Here is the input.
Amino acid sequence: VHRRDPSKESKELTTCFHYLNMTSRSFAAVIQELNPDMLVPIALFYLVLRGLDTIEDDMTIPIEKKEPMLRDFDKYMKTDGWTFDGNGPNEKDRDLLVHFDEVIVELKKLKKNYYDIIEDITIKMANGMADYALAAENNKGVETVPQYEEYCHYVAGLVGEGLTRLFVAGNWANPALLERMELTESMGQFLQKTNIIRDVHEDFLDKRRFWPTEIWSKYVDKWEDLFEPANRTKALQCSSEMVLNALKHADECLFYMAGIREQSVFNFVAIPQSMAIATIDLIFQNPAIFYSHIKITKGDACQLMIESTQNLRVVCDTFRRYTRRIAKKNDPRDPHFLEISAACGKIEQFIETLFPTQ
Ligand code: PS7
Ligand code: MN
Ligand code: MN
Ligand code: MN
Ligand code: MN
Ligand code: MN
Here is the structure.
């Protein structure tokens, strides 16, 4: 195992790692365990997107200012000395933008092929975020399931694309993954959809909505009604349909991981996916998502870390265990009972084809 040596780093790079540790929910540790050749490019990729997302999430920036800021973010990331002192959804994220000039110094030292991938993904994500922020302001927002999936593509599918391009550039992943971009897309969609289902109440308090009208309108007349205790049964049925929609990505995530050739990259991609299937299990049939912020326990997170840093067989065992827990909780009175049962069956079957149990 390789360790960073801060005494051999520039002061700006040390600052970058400081903000990586401050801002990342679960990514900081796995990024720092990456192979040294991947470590800095991926840490900087993370910080650029974390900075961009801080602007997207800052609901105190009026849309007239937010939209152009998002669309110009790729210019800021190459402007010497650029910083931004906004409100930030929390203090750590705000601090990252206050010290963004130091991220810019390090970005300029990247190999051109790495910088170009990061820049390309940033441009596409930022414009997608701007489109959806503008639509939300005009009371349109996410209406159909294809729009929901398009938003998830902008904020997570594209991250997967950039990462897969970086992995292949370094020969850490099978180049065949580039010809199967739907597998990469599933990796991002599965993480983002899990985040959107879990954060529904937090986003509601921020006056943001990512659940598509096409789905929630089958259960309640108005979006706010989903959070009324009197409507809990309908709300849970609605969340089951959201879970069903997310579960369809699980088998492709496992297939993607079969294309990773290097242990530290495998750990980096597998840990968030295992956390996601465990989070889906926590969310499923759980009314608490409509009134509080729920998270898997520290103990479960520790176990998932251990299980996700070995090999695909162990990760498949994890997925099977959580899939069975989901299937067990499935309620025959739920309108999507049969489809959820089939989706769980499909995941188990896929694992069986990868690792037959004689
Ligand atoms: C470059 C490591 C591995 C093929 C900062 C990792 C928002 C779920 O929606 O703030 O604001 O509530 O909780 C990470 C695919 C992205 C997708 C994305 C960049 C996996 C900014 C993570 C992470 C692709 C855009 C959670 C997507 O943030 O969300 C690097 C392969 C950042 C990955 C956003 C969401 C991350 C997320 P929200 P959060
Ligand atoms: Mn965010
Ligand atoms: Mn966001
Ligand atoms: Mn500074
Ligand atoms: Mn969220
Ligand atoms: Mn949250």
Remarks:
- The radius of gyration is 20 Å.
- The pocket of manganese (II) ion (ligand 3) is lined by residues 53, 56-57 (CB under 6 Å).
